[in-house]
Amino acid sequence: MVGFDDSPLVPYLDPPLTTIRQPVREMSLAAVNNLLEEIGGNRVPRTELLYHPELVVRRSTGPLRQPI
Fold it and tell me: What residues does the Transcriptional regulator LacI/GalR-like sensor domain cover (predicted)?
């Protein structure tokens, strides 16, 4: 079983839940900065922002397999 967003409580479940962790702080900062620019009257270019999630393996899944 795999969760998403890595809630602070997830490591304390039984078994601890494997999850996908997103860079929420970086995503939030980008959104707030763009919003503040718009509020300030500046035109913010519409671009796609890509973030790299992290797989956090815990005991709700087996170990990672090595490539053959």
Answer: 2-61
